[in-house]
């Protein structure tokens, strides 16, 4: 187990290093001049050169990269070209909102996927199983932004139950916070729950064909009780991998949903930074998202050993 942890930690660090090189390199070779974009097309070459010198854009790429990476090791993501504020502070403020949204959506997705997937597998060959499978397959084909717009039309425009957009912090009123959180969380969670339910169904079907499940039923347990008591734990191992992937995908999907519902999350900050061509802030945001995805993958890999005792032993 210790060797497995060390290997995964080393791979995590190496992947993060490669990602930093790729992110910095791609943004560095983008066409256009940040200084000229900020000053406008009428700026003189002298003014553009002075601004480039002030921002440090005239230094070699290797020097700029090493300074950027060195700053990240101390929690410094640089200073925004536009606002002249620390990038780390802006990312931290917006990341809190995105984490609340993504975690809420993941809870909704799991609450939808587990019962739908289990009952779809248990009802295979019956009308109930076919209906659940068809509904989940239909939901998979619906884009997240379209689901958000439909929810807004129904619950905000037609029924006037929930606000159509905006965000309220929990400390400003927990009731208003939940009302503003519900629609964007449902837009993300329902679609991901439908995707996850397909994998739950497949995993449960595989487990139901195993010999130990037949042994459990031969001892007097009904198929459903045998599945709940002995099958779900084993079915969770492949589902856990997909859950980690889905959680990472939620951060990407949140970028669109935050724009639809005007949520001040890290996705909205990324879109704003791209519009302003704030490259240093874009670098910081992308690296934070990459680090979050890698941490999720690392935790999923370590959770394998918790769920499956066979992975705890190594030679």
UniProtKB/TrEMBL annotation:
The keyword Cytoplasm does not apply. It comes from the Bacteria. Its main location: membrane. The chain crosses the membrane at residues 9-30, 99-122, 134-161, 181-200, 235-262, 282-307. It is found in: Cell membrane. Residues 95-304 form the ABC transmembrane type-1 domain. GO terms for molecular function: dipeptide transmembrane transporter activity. It is a multi-pass membrane protein. InterPro entries: BPD_transp_1_N (IPR045621), MetI-like (IPR000515), MetI-like_sf (IPR035906). It holds the Pfam family BPD_transp_1_N. Keywords: Cell membrane, Membrane, Transmembrane, Transmembrane helix, Transport. GO terms for cellular component: plasma membrane. PANTHER family: DIPEPTIDE TRANSPORT SYSTEM PERMEASE PROTEIN DPPB-RELATED (PTHR43163). Belongs to the binding-protein-dependent transport system permease family. This is Peptide ABC transporter. It comes from Microlunatus endophyticus.
């Amino acid at each position: 187990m210790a060797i497995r942890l060390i290997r995964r930690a080393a791979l995590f660090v190496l992947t993060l290093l490669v990602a930093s090189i790729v992110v910095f390199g791609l943004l560095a070779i983008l066409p256009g001049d940040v200084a000229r974009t900020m000053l406008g097309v009428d700026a003189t070459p002298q003014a553009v050169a002075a601004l480039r010198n002030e921002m440090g854009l005239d230094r070699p790429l290797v020097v700029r990269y090493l300074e950027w990476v060195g700053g990240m090791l101390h929690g410094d993501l640089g200073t925004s070209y536009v606002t002249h504020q620390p990038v780390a502070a802006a990312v931290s403020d917006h990341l809190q909102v995105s984490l609340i949204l993504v975690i809420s959506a993941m809870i909704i997705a799991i609450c939808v996927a587990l019962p739908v997937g289990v009952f779809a597998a248990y009802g295979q060959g019956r009308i109930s199983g076919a209906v659940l499978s068809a509904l989940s397959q239909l939901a998979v084909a619906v884009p997240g932004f379209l689901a958000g717009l439909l929810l807004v039309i129904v619950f905000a425009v037609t029924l006037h139950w929930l606000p159509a957009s905006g965000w309220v912090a929990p400390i400003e009123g927990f009731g208003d916070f939940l009302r503003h959180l519900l629609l964007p969380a449902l837009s993300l969670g329902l679609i991901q729950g439908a995707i996850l339910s397909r994998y739950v169904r497949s995993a449960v079907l595989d487990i139901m064909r195993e010999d130990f499940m037949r042994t459990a039923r031969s001892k007097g347990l009904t198929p459903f009780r045998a599945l709940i008591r002995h099958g779900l734990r084993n079915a969770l191992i492949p589902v856990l991998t997909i859950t980690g992937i889905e959680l990472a995908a939620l951060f990407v999907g949140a970028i669109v949903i935050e724009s639809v519902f005007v949520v001040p999350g890290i996705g909205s900050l990324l879109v704003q930074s791209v519009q302003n061509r704030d490259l240093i802030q874009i670098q910081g945001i992308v690296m934070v998202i990459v680090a979050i995805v890698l941490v999720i993958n690392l935790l999923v890999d370590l959770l394998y050993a918790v769920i499956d005792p066979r992975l705890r032993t190594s030679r």
